[in-house]
Amino acid sequence: TSPFTFRKLAGCTLFITGASRGIGKAIALKAAKDGANIVIAAKTAEPHPTLPGTIYTAAAEIEAAGGKALPCVVNVREEQQIVNAVEKAVKTFGGIDILVNNASAISLTGTLETETKKLNLMMDVNVRGTYLTSKTCLPHLRKSRNPHILNLSPPMNLNPMWFKNHCAYTISKYGMSMCVLGMAEEFRGEVAVNALWPKTAIHTAAMDMLGGSGIEKQCRKTDILADAAYCILTKPKSFTGNFIIDEVLLREEGVKDFDAYAIAPGHPLMPDFFLDEKKWSGSPQEGAAGAKVDTGSAAAAASGPVAETFRVIQGAMSEEYVRTTQGVFQFELSGDEGGTWHIDLKSKGGSAGFGKPPVTADVVMSMSSADFVKMFTGKLKPTLAFMSGKLRIKGNMTLAIKLEKMLTQLNSKL
C-alpha cells in the first residue's frame, strides 16, 4: 500500500535535532529503513523522569531499523555543542546531506503569564537554535548532491486568533518559518529549504502534557509526518520555499487510507495550531505550494475556552450520563474557535470534542463560541439564550432540555 518502495536515502546523512523521541525519532527511523546515517542531535543523554527515550535508546532503534546512528549531546541553545556535533558528523560520515530542524519548546501562555525564562527558552530553541544549526550545516549541505533543510514549522498565518492566546510561542514558531522564507531564496539552486506542519494534532509526549489523558484519541501517529518528510527529502533540491501540510502532500502522493495514521480510527481529530479550516481542505496543490493562508475562517484552536470546556465535559463523562441522556449533540460555533464540535451521550462511554459526532446528531445547536462558553459555565441560561435568539436549535427539543439538566450538574466543574 505504501508508495515508498525505493531506498532513496541509502547512504545519505541526516542531522536531526530533537531526534531522541517523538516526531524527530519517527523521521529518523523512516530514513534508517533506507540505510541512511542519522546524527541524533538531542540533549537527553540520561533518562528523563517522565519522558521516554535518550539519544542512546534512539540510536539502538535506528541501528535495528537498518541505519547507522551517531548520538550527539546537543542543546541547540549552545552554539559550541552544535558546532562540535556537526564536525563529528562530517568526520564520521563524510558530510551532511539533510538537516531536520525539529527541536522545539512550547508554552501556551498569554503575555502576562509567560515567564522570562520560558520566553528565552522558546526564542533560543525555536528561532535561534534553528538559525544557528542551519548556519553551521549549510557549508556542508552545499557540497551534497541533493541537500535539504526541513523545519518543523507552520505556514505563517497572520489571523490574530493564533497570536492572542500564546503570543510568544507563535512568534517563535513563525521565526522558524521565516528562516524557511529567507534561506530558501538565499540558497535557491544550491539547497532546498522547506517547512512541514501537521494538519491535525500529533500524539507525542508533549501532546500528553498539554492535553491530558484521553487526548490521544484526537491525534494521529508520528508516522504521518515521517512519511511526509520522506516525500519532501527525496524530491530534487529545486523543490524549495514550500510550506507543506502533511495530509495535503500525502494525498498528492497517492495515499488514500488516512485511518492508518489515526490513534483511534474514526474518532474526530483535533486540528493543529495555525491552520484555518477552509484553507487546508481545498486544493492539494495550493497546500504544497504554501500559498498565502486565508484568514477568514477560524478552525478550532487546541487551546482556548471552548476547547477547555470540551476537555472538562470529556473528563466528566460517565456511563450514568450516557444511560440517562441517550442523545448526540452537535454545536456549530461562530467566532474564535469556531467550527463543528460535539457531545455524544449515546455511544458507549460517550465522547466530546472537535469535529462532527461519530453518529448523526439528534440535536444541532448554533451559537457564538463566546455565548457557548457562557452557557456551559452557568452565566447564560440555555432557555434565555434560545428565547433571545442567541441559540438556534434544530432537532429533538426534549433532548435539548435533557442537556440543560446535565449542564446544571456540570457547572460546578466548569
UniProtKB/TrEMBL annotation:
<protein>
    <recommendedName>
        <fullName>Hydroxysteroid dehydrogenase-like protein 2</fullName>
    </recommendedName>
</protein>
<feature type="domain" description="SCP2">
    <location>
        <begin position="318"/>
        <end position="407"/>
    </location>
</feature>
<keyword id="KW-0560">Oxidoreductase</keyword>
<dbReference type="GO" id="GO:0016491">
    <property type="term" value="F:oxidoreductase activity"/>
</dbReference>
<dbReference type="Pfam" id="PF02036">
    <property type="entry name" value="SCP2"/>
</dbReference>
<dbReference type="InterPro" id="IPR002347">
    <property type="entry name" value="SDR_fam"/>
</dbReference>
<keyword id="KW-0521">NADP</keyword>
<comment type="similarity">
    <text>Belongs to the short-chain dehydrogenases/reductases (SDR) family.</text>
</comment>
<dbReference type="InterPro" id="IPR036527">
    <property type="entry name" value="SCP2_sterol-bd_dom_sf"/>
</dbReference>
<dbReference type="GO" id="GO:0005777">
    <property type="term" value="C:peroxisome"/>
</dbReference>
<dbReference type="GO" id="GO:0005739">
    <property type="term" value="C:mitochondrion"/>
</dbReference>
<keyword id="KW-0576">Peroxisome</keyword>
<dbReference type="InterPro" id="IPR036291">
    <property type="entry name" value="NAD(P)-bd_dom_sf"/>
</dbReference>
<keyword id="KW-0496">Mitochondrion</keyword>
<dbReference type="InterPro" id="IPR051935">
    <property type="entry name" value="HSDL2"/>
</dbReference>
<dbReference type="InterPro" id="IPR003033">
    <property type="entry name" value="SCP2_sterol-bd_dom"/>
</dbReference>
<dbReference type="Pfam" id="PF00106">
    <property type="entry name" value="adh_short"/>
</dbReference>
